[in-house]
Amino acid sequence: MSRSVEGKARRFGHRVSTDTIISSSRKRESIDPHLLKAFIFESVDPRFAASVTRGDILVAGRAFGCGSAMEVAVTVLQAAGFSAVVAEDFSRSYLRNAVNNGLLPVECDTSSIEEGDQLRVDVGRESVRVVNVTQKRVLEARAWPPFLLDILEAGGLVNYLRDGDGFANTRS
Amino acid sequence: MVVGRTLSEAILSSKSGGPARAGDIVVCEPDLILGTDGSTPMAIDYFEAMGGQAVADATRILLACDHYAPPTSTTTSGFHRRMEDFARTHGIEILPVGGGISFQVALDTDRVAPGDLVVGADSHTVTCGAVGAFATGVGSSDLAGAFLTGRVWLRVPHTIRVVLEGEIPTGVGAKDVALELVRVLGTGTADYAALEFHGPAAAAMPVAERMVLSNMSVDMGAMAGLFDTAVVSDLHRAQRPAVREHTLDVATMEPQVALPHDPGNSVPVGEAVGRPVDWVLLGTCTGGRVHDFREALRVLRAAGGLAPGVTLVVTPPSQAVRAALEADGTLEAFETLGAVVTETGCGPCCATSGPLPPPNAKVLSTGSRNYRGRMGDPSVDIMLASPATCAAAAASGRVVDPRSIS
Which of A39, A170, A172 is most worth mutating to test chain B (most B CB atoms within 10 A of its CB)? Predict the structure, then answer.
């Protein structure tokens, strides 16, 4: 298994934009995710940020992370304690940013997952799955291309490129 | 001759040095790498964490101080200082505050050619698809990787052909077509596809209007939005059937208004008429062409000028656009009518600089996004429309059909 995390589901709907995750106006004061984490989802619920516990798993519908490609929308969720986002699909810039920073983006049918469900996310080379421990249900997720697993296993893009020879050839 | 490739496959094959088919992951060398003050400060952090000593090719990088223009905090003026230091150290060109939005300047100054690959740490980099380039947005870490290696990995997208049939009627603009396509394509997500715009209405569009459709292709959920050009066509000749095709008859289209709080919430203007508007933004990377401002001024004058109680903010997106609007008196005319003309750049659209609408404001904007909180305060209702519809609302304090103003 490349990576496995477990935590409590925090439920959102479709088309959660990066501006909804963290308002870009907040970036005028800081881009330090440890300062910005107090303001996540403030336009949805100002009390949400304080309710996150380390290891929580964000669950959403379609097009998670649409809108601006701002990368703090990934790092601020990590700073808040989230280890993974499970959604029906992601905007591609959010997916890239998540992989590059080691926040697990997992794509599966999330319609059965409820707020507070205990989830385990297993990302491996053979399969990616979400185990809903509360509902005793296994959700098969979209497999990751090997190239992305290489970046994930390196610990993100910084480690992948640090002191290395750049990007590996993707054509075998 | 290689046959049977989409525009995207042809360009990404060329830039990755081998065959690139939809679904493949390829490592490409972009012709142009764009960074903004919204993304570059973080990218410099990543670059340093990667152990970066030198950039791969400074001549292919352009940086822009466009979001925090002007900077309204010591943090953001500090971002600019940090970018300037980085640019000087590595010999990279940087646009100062007032220089303009990165991709608008790239297009204004002919840095983008048909068939090019443009990667920018700004989601609206896709605008460069208007001239037949493959242009897409990335985040700060990918920008840092591109600084370091001169390369970026991309998943080759499948293609959705968007066929625009008919002729766009008077009073309807490219923005209206874009909002309709966001409504149809965006809410389901175009799932990492590239959009290729075809058909007679696409062929008839000048580049300035093509830029609006390419710009909002990201808000349609797409990776890129390309227009065909003769040069690009030579690259691929015969096209493989696209995965999907979507046809829109623009001849029957009406002006559109995207209601709060999603750009996909667009309705024909008739369904929005009468909604109160007290704050109007003209400009941004979506509605910032020279003809957009001229059209808005024409409508504003024809409708009798700015309505009492309405704030009108005018933000040119680049020096070239600003110079054209100064030369013909457009900006001065807006100011005479009571508008606030701001510094060149992204302006209030993403709340990175001011002026910003007050709590509970009812905004109509030529911008591309109206997510709750986008302009700073979550109590603000943002609607999106064409420059003509925005100007008509500025003159009446409510949404009106711009076609009713002669």
Answer: A170
